[in-house]
Structure formats: structure tokens, C-alpha cells
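User: Here's a structure from my thesis project, written as C-alpha cells. My advisor, Dr. K., wants to see whether a designed sequence matches the one we expressed. Can you design one independently, without my sequence as a hint?
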């Protein structure tokens, strides 16, 4: 009888010790879990480097409703003494800037990509409400919903290999030296050197004349022309400056390298670009001028005139892409500026979204 009571007491004591150990184990496991969660939180917040905004890659594309730009963003990482940049991972998205001035949006495309996985990334082009891209594989987004399209629609034949497989036209392709405003009448932007070399009496001009980007002061000139020879060339009878105002690196804007300067109606006008000032701080200025060379409006884009990388023309609005003038020890901010051809209203967006 006494032995049985002792056995019960021993069993009860053993069970109490077991419960105590199990409770300590559970508390320890819980504490470990809390510490692990806290460590993970600290790693993902306080110890993780946020690399900041993304940067544009490749040329932008103009659609019917947006300016689209591929953006690469370095994903957050934990710093170390022997950090290997080859292990960095990037997210790729498409930055959509609406032409109507509404807020831009970044559409995520792919993430956790190694640098060599998007080295050939490019926008293929747009048709209607669809924009195609190639980011480690072809895909498309819906420009209305700003979402990736699940089932890829067929890439138009014109875009196979990418409409941007070759570099887009250089900004100079959209510059013109002058235009024929009426029968036998020329309106040009010429420097003194150009006047003597190319636009003196007896020289010939065509309807489409390219303007070289050069750091020269140009003035408005009106010329009288003879009838076309062979339907192409007009001999210059006279050429006279309209006023004494000079515009640095001035040129008229046109839709492509085969067209005359774009005309804007009511009153009939043309668009002109020039540089705000000589030197490293000169910015691109866009103006609307009438056929007498009188300014209707002028807009300073804030883009370094000689770091203008793209011109995206449009009948309603021109878009310009480039960087701000250089600042010592800083990377110049890339800008997209859209200017309404009629009113001069400007939409400026950073391409550090």
C-alpha cells in the first residue's frame, strides 16, 4: 500500500517536472520566434538599403495617349563588407506619362532580375490601346487599365524585332532652317556665316532644309525666291534680316527629316527652338512665332540644350527628353517635357519615378 502511494507521488512529481519543462520549452520557442521575427523586421527595414527611385533605360515611345519609358529599379538589399554587385536584383516597369497632363503611373513588369537578364530590354511599340515590350521575353500592357495583358496578343509584323531595334532619330532630325511661307517668300533662321555661305543672293534653297545644331546666333530673315527649277530648287533673289534679335542655335521644328516645319493655325505660326544662354547652363527654349518672326509664347523646358536625347513629335504637342544642366557632384535629373503646340502649356515630369 505504501509502495503504491509512493509510486503515485513519484508519477505526479515526474508529470509536474515534465509540464514545467514543456512550458519552459514553449516559452523558449516562443521567445526564439519573436526574436526571429524582430530580426527579420530589422533586416528588412532598418538594415536594408533602399536604393531610391528607378532610372530610365532605352528610348521612350510615344503612343496615342502616353509617353512610355522603361524604368529599372534596384531592389532593396542588406549591406555587407564584401557586397557582390553581381548579386543585385532589379525590378523593371513601364513609366506611363499621359499626354493630357494627368498623373503618371509606373506599371510593374518583372522583378528579381539579374543585370544580364534585361540587358536587351526595349519597348517594341504601340498600336491602339496596346503597348508591346521585350523584357527577358515579350509582353504587352493595356494602356487603358495600366495592367499587364495575361494572354499576349500577336505582335504586329511592323514591330517584330522592335521598332526601336535601331536607335530613334537624333534630335537634330527634327530641326529645319526655314520654310516657304507663300509664293516666292522664305522665312529662315540664319547666322551671319550661314547667310554668306548658303543663303546669299543667287544661292538655291529647297522646301525642306535641315538645320545644323551649332552654337551660333541666328536671326529671322525674309527672302524672295524665284520660281522653282526642276520643281525643287529656288534661286534666292534677296535675303533681309527682319530684326536684330539673335537666338542661339535656333531652328524650326518639324515632324520628321523629310517634312517642312510644322504649321500651327490661328494665327498661322511655326514652332522654334533655341538655347537660353551660352555655356554649360544653357537650356532648351521652345517658342511659337508668327510668319513675321514675332513670338506668341516661349517656354523654358529646363533641359540642357546639348543633352537633349529625344524629340517625340506630334501635331498637337511635342515632347522632349533630356537631363537638367549639370550640377557638380550630382547626377543630372532626366526630364520629360510635353508642350502644347497651340497654347504653350507645358507638362514636366521627372523620369526618376
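Assistant: Designed independently from the structure alone:
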Amino acid at each position: 500500500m505504501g509502495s503504491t502511494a509512493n509510486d503515485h507521488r513519484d508519477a505526479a512529481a515526474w508529470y509536474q517536472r515534465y509540464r514545467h519543462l514543456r512550458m519552459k520549452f514553449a516559452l523558449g520557442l516562443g521567445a526564439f520566434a519573436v526574436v526571429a521575427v524582430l530580426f527579420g523586421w530589422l533586416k528588412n527595414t532598418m538594415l536594408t538599403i533602399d536604393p531610391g527611385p528607378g532610372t530610365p533605360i532605352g528610348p521612350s515611345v510615344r503612343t496615342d495617349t502616353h509617353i512610355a519609358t522603361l524604368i529599372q529599379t534596384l531592389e532593396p538589399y542588406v549591406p555587407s563588407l564584401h557586397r557582390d554587385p553581381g548579386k543585385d536584383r532589379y525590378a523593371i516597369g513601364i513609366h506611363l506619362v499621359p499626354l493630357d497632363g494627368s498623373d503618371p503611373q509606373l506599371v510593374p513588369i518583372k522583378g528579381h532580375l539579374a543585370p544580364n537578364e534585361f540587358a536587351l530590354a526595349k519597348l517594341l511599340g504601340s498600336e491602339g490601346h496596346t503597348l508591346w515590350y521585350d523584357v527577358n521575353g515579350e509582353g504587352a500592357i493595356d494602356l487603358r487599365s495600366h495592367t499587364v495583358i495575361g494572354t499576349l496578343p500577336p505582335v504586329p509584323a511592323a514591330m517584330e524585332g522592335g521598332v526601336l531595334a535601331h536607335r530613334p532619330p537624333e534630335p537634330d532630325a527634327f530641326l529645319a532652317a526655314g520654310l516657304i511661307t507663300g509664293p516666292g517668300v522664305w522665312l529662315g533662321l540664319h547666322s551671319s556665316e550661314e547667310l554668306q555661305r548658303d543663303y546669299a543672293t543667287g544661292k538655291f534653297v529647297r522646301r525642306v532644309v535641315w538645320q545644323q545644331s551649332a552654337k551660333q546666333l541666328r536671326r529671322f530673315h525674309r527672302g524672295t525666291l524665284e520660281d522653282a527649277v526642276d520643281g525643287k530648287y529656288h534661286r534666292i533673289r534677296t535675303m533681309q534680316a527682319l530684326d536684330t534679335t539673335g537666338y542661339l542655335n535656333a531652328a524650326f521644328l518639324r515632324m520628321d527629316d523629310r517634312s517642312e516645319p510644322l504649321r500651327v493655325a490661328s494665327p498661322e505660326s511655326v514652332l522654334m527652338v533655341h538655347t537660353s544662354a551660352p555655356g554649360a547652363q544653357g537650356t532648351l527654349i521652345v517658342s511659337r512665332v508668327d510668319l513675321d518672326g514675332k513670338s506668341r509664347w516661349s517656354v523654358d523646358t529646363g533641359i540642357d540644350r546639348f543633352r537633349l536625347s529625344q524629340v517625340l513629335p506630334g501635331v498637337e504637342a511635342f515632347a522632349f527628353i533630356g537631363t537638367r544642366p549639370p550640377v557638380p557632384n550630382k547626377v543630372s535629373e532626366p526630364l520629360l517635357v510635353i508642350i502644347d503646340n497651340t497654347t504653350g502649356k507645358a507638362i514636366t515630369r521627372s523620369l526618376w519615378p
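When you compare it with your expressed construct, this may help: The first helix runs from residue 2 to 44.
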